[in-house]
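Below is one such record:
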Amino acid sequence: MIQFLLNQELRSEHALDPNLTVLNYLREHVGKPGTKEGCASGDCGACTVVVGELHRDDSGVEQIRYRSLNSCLTFVSSLHGKQLISVEDLKHQGQLHSVQQAMVECHGSQCGFCTPGFVMSLFALQKNSDSPDSRKAHEALAGNLCRCTGYRPILAAAEQACCNKPQDQFDSRQAQTIARLKAIAPTQTGELNSGDKRCLVPLTVADLADLYDAYPQARLLAGGTDLALEVTQFHRTLPVMIYVGNIDEMKRIESFDDRLEIGAAAPLRLLQRPAPGLPGLRRTAAAVCLPADPQPGHPGWQYRQRLADWRFTAVADRPGRADRAVQGQHPAHPGAGRLLHRLPCYRPARQRIHRKNHRAQGPRAVSCVQGVQASGR
């Protein structure tokens, strides 16, 4: 069984299909159709929801950390012990939430299909920001696409929402929500089992090792940005999954004299924070370098990218490969980070690559400004 809060409602699920996404759970099982499906591949952001989970800040105070995610790529099993907030939960006592009101007053919506996703991204931004910050606003909205309004009024709504932060129902209920999340905090391995499919949710590396030994055919699930596509795009069935997102040991980044260890469940945002003895890793405006006309053996398949003082080498050994093996090396720590991560290498709509005018060119940088490619036209 898994347990989570649907806003303030306790949900206990044990027989759901483990291949069910949060998007379809909201729309088909609990009657909340405000969350939209746009692409079912994590590119457009129309399906954005917010998840709240317990977190201790630097002073040791327990708080709720809110983060936005794509519900179309998130399986329900990953909600174990957390709070799920959808766009329907923001309006309170007949009044729009301040982020919804900002979208109205700044004329940030036109056709409206993408609006719920933008609203939820703005809600997470407001909860995680103490003051207006253009860089944070661009970062928070980078995963949301709008094809009719344009981004200027939406960014204006982001600024207004972060300037005007009246206390909302989530603030007034924070102590109650923390107590309820503590009450449902997982203490043993959770499971969703529909009979022919199952997903296991261990809490420790030892539990994971035992489960993986018992189910060697199981697919390991972390963020789901790759694995969920097998369900949403290829319509395959995943009979056994093991979700590693609740294992604290696998959500850390640790530095040693000769290496940097990144847990398989560590979010990429942690790479932007400085680690003891090592500089923080920051993204640059150059999103990725790709060959204009990819061919096996083309030099563009090996490209280097410099972020802060780190050098990353990404190598793809064949066209169409779904990911890149990313290696990193720091001048002061030559052995650190032999293999850092495997990153998905998709080309979302907001990074449209127009090749027809660049057939004769080698690798080129794709710069993204406000989520739209700035070069290539």
In short: DSSP finds nine helices and 18 strands in the chain. Residues 278-377 have pLDDT under 50 and may be disordered.
